[in-house]
Each structure stands twice: as C-alpha cells, then as structure tokens.
Write a structure and sequence with these properties.
Elements (H helix, E strand, L loop, with lengths): L1 H4 L6 E5 L4 E5 L4 E5 L2 E13 L4 E13 L2 E12 L8 E8 L4 E7 L9 E8 L1 H13 L1
Antiparallel strand pairs: 1-2, 1-9, 2-4, 3-4, 4-5, 5-6, 6-7, 7-8, 8-9
Length: 139
C-alpha cells in the first residue's frame, strides 16, 4: 500500500527561499539532444507563492550536462489561477546528483512592476526515494 501511495507524491518539490512559497511538479519531460545537451521542461502544476497566490509555472530550459552537474538557463511563464498573466520570466538552474538536488534563481516575470526575484531549492524523485526507503525498511 505504501508503494502505491508513492505515486501520489510529486516528482519535484521546490522551496522559494527568497520570497517564501512552494512549488510541486509531477512530470518533467526532458529532450536529450546530445550526451551533453538537453532541453528540460519546467512544469510546476501547483505553485504557491509567499502571499498564498496559486499559479502554475511552465517553461523550457536548455541544459548543459557536465560530469555530475547540470547548468540550464531558460524562460518560464507563471500562469495565475486567478488574475492577469504576466510576461515570461528568466531562470537559471544548477543541479547535482542527476538533477535530484537543484538551486534555481531568476525573475518570475519581466513585466514592469511585477519583477519578483526567485531563489528555489528543490529535491526531485521523491517517489523513487520513498520506494527505496520502503525496500530498505522491509529488510
């Protein structure tokens, strides 16, 4: 039963340490172009900022893979569940451990008067972590 519940967990959880807030992603497709180059997706279906406003954030991020780290820069669109859609923002991400740990920084929107800095710390593959911890616990 615990293994079935692991599928309900989001793939990535990101904490916004600059303005407060949290984002959840259940799916993040990646297109591998070369062994050292991919296009990563940003797909935070549920993004709650520090003021409690709820939105969804989507984008694309070309990413260079170097050894055990990855470096990406791209655009993201934050789509509020209620309110006006703003211009896209720009973000960069440094990730380690096959993208399991990441630091993302940038600006949510380039619209004048709506530029909010974002610094997010994220952990991904939570369902995989639950799976392996459950197997380890069963020993």
């Amino acid at each position: 039963m615990l293994l079935a519940a692991a599928h309900l967990l989001p793939y990535r959880v990101s904490l916004d340490v600059a303005r407060g807030g949290v984002a959840f992603s259940w799916l993040e497709p990646t297109l591998r172009l070369l062994p050292s180059l991919s296009i990563d997706s940003i797909a935070n279906v549920l993004d709650i900022d520090g003021t409690g406003r709820v939105s969804s954030t989507f984008g694309l991020m070309p990413t260079l893979l170097r050894g055990r780290a990855a470096l990406g820069v791209g655009a993201q669109w934050t789509l509020p569940w209620s309110g006006v859609v703003q211009a896209p923002g720009v973000v960069g991400r440094i990730a380690w451990l096959q993208d399991r740990l990441a630091v993302t920084g940038g600006v949510r929107s380039l619209s004048s008067g709506h530029r909010q800095a974002v610094v997010m710390l994220s952990v991904s593959d939570l369902n995989g972590l639950v799976y392996w911890l459950t197997l380890w616990r069963a020993r």
